[in-house]
């Protein structure tokens, strides 16, 4: 399972040679209770991933969720409680927090961006600009926050981009080649950068037209040209500061790399609250 591999690699970064500090201070008989708290307001995400981290280190650690993925959590609130070997809690601490902090950061941003899109009837989706190796987790966090997923892999849908067009010779040639091979059922998306390319994509029979790195005003012009003949996706350069302006231009979908490639992690911390023995 892919999550098992991700967790295994993450734990190896910390524990391939042991934990010189904890292994020196504590014995396997020492036990403790701990909690993880939010240090800022956030949309929680990554609870099951954290559970699997602690289980991979020590299946006997008791993991008690106090919140669930998708919950709005306020600064200072406890999100989960732990009880078990002190060594196990400390060895799993950073890896579990790293996952939860990144995933909560993505979910928090997704919640905010999706709310803006909803006001205008625009679907907010992610891209493949994810942390290498963590795409499944990044995209799960996007869904947890309320936004939607675009492609997870290159096999998921047809998207003819600039380099496909350059190598094929034209939008028309690329679309024709796709249609001659895959038939009529899959939707075909074509990336365009100007009005002439939009017209060519429409003439070629594109089902979805991506308006790449266009201004909101250019989007309005292209929307008038498309006139409902294809789904309109806006992509490139969209961020929290200009998202509303792009939504007002009237696309059907806005894809945002900013959902995953540059979202700050949210701050959570683990604290030992009781030393049992």
TrEMBL record:
One of its GO terms (biological process) is quinolinate catabolic process. Substrate binds at residues 94, 127-129, 151, 161, 191, 212, 235-237, 256-258. GO terms for cellular component: cytoplasm. Pathway: Cofactor biosynthesis; NAD(+) biosynthesis; nicotinate D-ribonucleotide from quinolinate: step 1/1. Keywords: Glycosyltransferase, Pyridine nucleotide biosynthesis, Transferase. One of its GO terms (molecular function) is nicotinate-nucleotide diphosphorylase (carboxylating) activity. InterPro entries: Aldolase_TIM, NadC, NadC/ModD, Nicotinate_pribotase-like_C, Quinolinate_PRibosylTase_N_sf, Quinolinate_PRibosylTrfase_C, Quinolinate_PRibosylTrfase_N. The keyword Transferase applies. Belongs to the NadC/ModD family. Hexamer formed by 3 homodimers. This is Probable nicotinate-nucleotide pyrophosphorylase [carboxylating].
